[in-house]
Amino acid sequence: MIEHGMTFKPDTLYEDLKSANEVAQLFKKTRSDSGITIEKAADDTKIRKLWLHCMEMGEFDKLPGRVYAIGFSRTYATYLGLDPSFIVKTLQTSADFFQEGNNILISSQRENNKILTPKVTVIISLILVSFIVFAFSYFMKNDTPESNTHEVVSTAQETELDDDLAD
User: Fold this and answer.
1) How many of the other CB atoms lie within 10 Å of CB of 87?
2) Does residue 106 carry a pLDDT above 50?
3) pLDDT above 90 for 52
4) What are the angstrom distances between the C-alpha of 20 and each of 39, 44, 87?
5) Which residue, 84, 88, 87, 79, is CA-closest to 34?
6) What is the DSSP string of 85-98?
7) Helix, strand, or coil here: 67?
8) Which range scores top for mean pLDDT: 19-23, 28-32, 100-104, 156-160?
9) Can you give the pTM of this predicted structure?
10) Coil, strand, or helix at residue 65?
């Protein structure tokens, strides 16, 4: 588990903390006051520098997902010596935490799912099967045994004539 030696008293630090933007400012201020670079924090927490930067800028909607945003915030708060449960509760109750990006993601997924509805899939399947049947019947008509039967008969007749001549 990631431990950092610094802890703060919740009475003075968390009393005005009510939004995700304020949590982001707290992350940035605590890190810079501790003299920790964002690169060192990324190495220590194993959270990409890009994600830490997004968290410190209050851009939680740019993180890979809400669950990741909460997990990263919990890990980062622990690393910085902050109370992770209080940080997570503040983020979850905040109106500006992961709202717009999540709605855009959900609406774009719904639009993408509507492309291949069951009705469209059935129609495409029927067209494909019809094409295969048509192609099979077309090639079978062009390769009729009539053209081959003359050759087979004439070859058989030649063989009989050869046998008759040999006797």
Assistant:
1) 23
2) no
3) yes
4) 22, 23, 9
5) 79
6) HHHHHHHHH-TTSS
7) helix
8) 28-32
9) 0.53
10) coil
